[in-house]
Give the backbone structure.
Amino acid sequence: MVEYNPVSEAVRELVRERVHTLEHLHVLLWLRAQCGADGPEAVRDVERRLTAALSLPLALLRSTLTQLCERELVSMQRTRGEPTRWRYAPATAELDSAVRELEAAYAESSVELLQLFSSNAIERFRSGSLKLFADALRLDKKR
């Protein structure tokens, strides 16, 4: 009998706060695999390799890498005259652990994880819409 392991709270929080899209997920896991879990080496020519490996448009890939960097999951290294180097570099051991759990959850229960991505996206959309509506009401009252 197959044991059912629901997505942990650490993974739910990681997806809610830092890994919002499937692009984030795939790029993060690709970098982790390329750099090794503890590898300090930045991956060379990431943009070209990731564009080919994941079939992502370059603009979307750059945006995804930048967002993951801002969310303290990867780091970038710029050297004049060379392409930007990126590496898997979670800011804390807890983040690294959560990414490991995320990778396992994706392998074991991808449907539940996809549902989590979808429900979080819907919630972000609703929250953004409510905020926009509330802001519009405030602006209308100032007139």
About this structure: The two ends are 65 Å apart (CA to CA). The chain has one domain: 9-142. The mean pLDDT is 82. The first strand starts at residue 74 and ends at 77.
